[in-house]
Design a protein that fits this description.
About 40% of the residues lie in helices and about 25% in strands. By secondary structure, it is an alpha+beta fold.
Length: about 230
């Protein structure tokens, strides 16, 4: 039996399948590598496959009529995407661009449909995966329409801290460039810079290029009103 990458065997789509079922699903796909800046697919193109990130980062974006980029999600290793595109009208609802050189697992749509017909367990897992993406997009919509930029940034920073309880003096690493942080917060880089300055002036944090130092964790949590 082929030994698959741990990232793949841990995908939510297959992690609860039996070993034989998981092997059938993963063996039906293939790997593909892409360099930074490459476009995997464009919004509106016919959907031919779903993907999972094994390493690197992929951003899913849509563009306004004036060309403004809206970041829908930044896909990290261990997550699959584009499942929904294989159903409905069969086109990709967003553009996928490589942020960091990426290694992807590609499952062609025809192979997925065959697997779904043979495995009710996989069909249930697929519904779960689609449900997770629906929740993510609903959360993104709530952030963009009902939260101030300060609050979005606070949520982002708490998310970067993981599960640890932040204390005064703790460091939160910012491994992504400011323009990408701004996109995830649904704002422009210059607005993000002003927001960092406001939080510094209020004594909430001290910002550096690649990290922030938390000064008032209680204020940061209050701004975020933490959501998962």
């Amino acid at each position: 039996m082929v030994k698959h990458d741990e990232i793949l065997t841990g995908l939510p789509l297959v992690e609860h399948l039996s070993e034989d079922q998981r092997e059938r699903v993963l063996s039906a796909g293939h790997e593909r590598t892409l360099e930074r800046g490459e476009i995997l697919f464009h919004e509106g193109e016919p959907a031919h496959a779903m993907y999972a990130v094994m390493s690197g980062q992929i951003k899913l974006v849509r563009y306004s009529p004036r060309g403004r980029e809206l970041l829908l999600h930044l896909v990290q290793p261990g997550w699959s995407f584009a499942e929904v595109a294989l159903f409905g009208n069969g086109t990709y609802p967003a553009t996928a661009e490589v942020v960091e050189a990426a290694r992807l697992w590609v499952l062609p749509g025809a192979a997925l449909l065959d697997l779904l017909g043979a495995s009710p367990e996989l069909a249930l897992a697929m519904l779960g995966s689609i449900s997770r993406w629906t929740r993510k997009l609903a959360t993104k919509l709530e952030l963009l329409t009902q939260r101030r930029v300060e609050e979005r940034l606070a949520i982002y920073l708490l998310g970067r801290s993981g599960s640890r309880e932040l204390a005064a003096g703790d460091i939160v690493e910012l491994s992504e460039p400011r323009n990408l942080i701004a996109a995830q917060c649904g704002t422009a880089p210059e607005v993000l810079s002003r927001t960092f300055r406001h939080l510094e002036d209020d004594g909430v944090l001290a910002a550096d290029i690649d990290h922030i130092t938390v000064l008032r964790p209680d204020r940061l949590r209050a701004l975020a009103e933490w959501i998962e």
